[in-house]
C-alpha cells in the first residue's frame, strides 16, 4: 500500500511556533447521526484510520456507541462531550479518548471540527459507524446528568433542557435532519 500523506489544514510555520488554520465550514461527505454533520475521509487501512468531522454550531450526535474506540482531537471551535452522566466542554487544542462501547454524545457549541482516529476504522459515511442508544444510557448510574458548563444537575426522567441547559444531548434537543428520518436510516429512530 503506497504511503498516503494528506494535508488537512493550512500551516504557518514560524521559528518558535506553528499555527494551523482550520476552516469552520462544511466538509464534502455527509455523516449519519447528526443534522448537517459532514466530514472528510483522511487516511485508513481498514484497521485504523482518521477522518475530519464537522458539526455546525448547535448540532450534535445523539448518544451512541460504535464498533471501535475513538481518539478525538478537537481542532476547531468549542463543543461538548457527554460521558457517564457529565457534559464536558471541549475546545480546539484538546484531545480525548472514548471507548466505543461506552455510550457518549458529541455536541457543537460553535462550529466544531474534530480529527477522529478510530480503530477498527469505519468509513465516514458508513451507516454502522455509530449505533444510537437511548438518552437513559448516557446518564450516570444513579440517574443523574450534570452539565459542567451550566452547573446544573438533573435526575431522570428530567433532562438538562428542562433547566434551560442548551447543551442537553437528548435526541429532542439534538434533533434530526429530514434525511435521517427516512426508512433507510431507520437505525437512527
Ligand atoms: Zn449546559
Ligand atoms: Zn434535551
What does the model show?
2% of the residues lie in helices and 41% in strands. The chain is mainly β and 189 residues long. The protein has a domain at 24-133: Jelly Rolls (Sandwich). It has a seven-stranded mixed beta sheet, with no helix packed on it. A six-stranded antiparallel beta sheet has the order 3-4-5-12-7-10, with no helix packed on it. A two-stranded antiparallel sheet has the order 1-2. A hairpin with a 4-residue loop joins strand 4 and strand 5. It is globular. The structure holds zinc ion (2 copies). One zinc ion is lined by residues 87, 147, 149-150, 160, 165-167.
- Strands of the widest sheet, in order across it, are 13-6-11-8-9-14-15
- The count of β-strands is 15
Give unreliable regions as ranges: 177-189
Please give the radius of gyration in angstroms: 17 Å
Task: Give the end-to-end Cα distance, rounded to a whole number of Å.
Answer: 39 Å
Mean pLDDT: 90
* Helical residue percent band: under 10%
Helical run tally: 1
CATH C-level of the domain at 24-133: Mainly Beta
Q: Tell me which oligomeric state these chains represent.
A: single chain
Give the biggest sheet: 7 strands, mixed
Q: What sort of overall outline do the alpha carbons produce when their principal axes are compared?
A: globular
Structural class: mainly beta
Query: And the CATH topology of the domain at 24-133?
Result: Jelly Rolls
How much of the sequence lies in strands comes to 35-45%
What CATH architecture of the domain at 24-133 do you see?
Answer: Sandwich
